Amino acid sequence: MGIEEIEQKDYFSIGDVKRITGVPEYSVRYWEAEFGLIRPIRLESGHRRYTKEDVYTILKIKDLIYNKY
Questions:
Q1: CB neighbour list of residue 35: distance below 8 Å, 6 or more residues apart
Q2: How far is residue 24's CA from residue 17's CA, in Å, rounded to a whole number?
Q3: Beta pairing class for 48-51 and 41-42
Q4: What would the mean pLDDT of 39-55 be, rounded to a whole number?
Q5: Would you call 30 helix, strand, or coil by DSSP?
Q6: Rounded CA Rg of the chain
Q7: What is the mean pLDDT of residues 6-16?
């Protein structure tokens, strides 16, 4: 999984994001609230749908936190 999967789809569930990035779901939700850079689309059911840009932002945040800090 990785860049190839990101380019194949337009929207991702939080489970997809977890699988692609390796970041736990609770961390994705925390980063969403803490940094304000990730803005998933909310469906009427309340489920989040992340865009390609959101996934790339999560990968950048992960790199900054785990590798640069």
A1: 61
A2: 9
A3: antiparallel
A4: 95
A5: helix
A6: 11
A7: 92
